[in-house]
Amino acid sequence: MVNRLDFLPTRLNAAPVVFRGMTGHEVGMMALGGVAAGLLPGAIGAWLLGAIAMVPTVAFACAGMALYVGGAVMRRLRRGRPASWLYRSLQFRLARQGIRLRGADALITRSGPFSRRRMRYQPGGRP
User: Fold this and answer.
1) Which residue spans traverse the membrane (predicted)?
2) 19-42: b or e for each residue (b if 16 or more CB lie within 10 Å)?
3) How far apart are CA 80 and CA 122, in angstroms?
């Protein structure tokens, strides 16, 4: 008897929810963004107060706030939509602005009228 799956459920391949509705990659991106956003205020605070420990303290506090607020925002944005919807919508918005990311050439960004009927005369063809 052969033990094998003829199908693979899609939920097995989905990234697990780790924290506040975000996956591991999203948590990492949100935390890095918070650390980066907190470096400048931390450096200014360290310069004003003369305490170099202000830089990592403020940076990690900003990372925590980014995780807390960012998780709520991400949950609200993705409610009832597929997992890849947010990334595809951001990719589409950037492609419409002229910024092409990897895989953006497969997106249809042109808008115009669409018709299913055949034209009576097709340019370049026989009448």
Assistant:
1) 55-74
2) ebbbbeebbeebbeebbebbeeeb
3) 43
- What band does 10 get if pLDDT is binned at 50, 70 and 90? low
Note the Cα 33 to chain centre separation in Å. Answer: 13
Confidence category of residue 109, pLDDT binned at 50, 70, 90: low
- Is pTM beyond 0.90? Reply is no
Question: Which H or E run includes 58?
Answer: helix 54-78
**Residues 29/49, Cβ–Cβ less than 8 Å:** no
pLDDT score at 120: 65
Give the Cβ contact number of residue 111 at 10 Å. Answer: 7
37 — pLDDT class (breaks 50, 70, 90): very high
CB atoms within 10 A of CB 65: 13
**CA atoms of 47 and 94, how far apart (whole Å):** 38
Query: Which positions ≥6 away from 37 have C-beta within 8 Å?
Result: 62, 66
Both tokens of residue 119?
């034209």
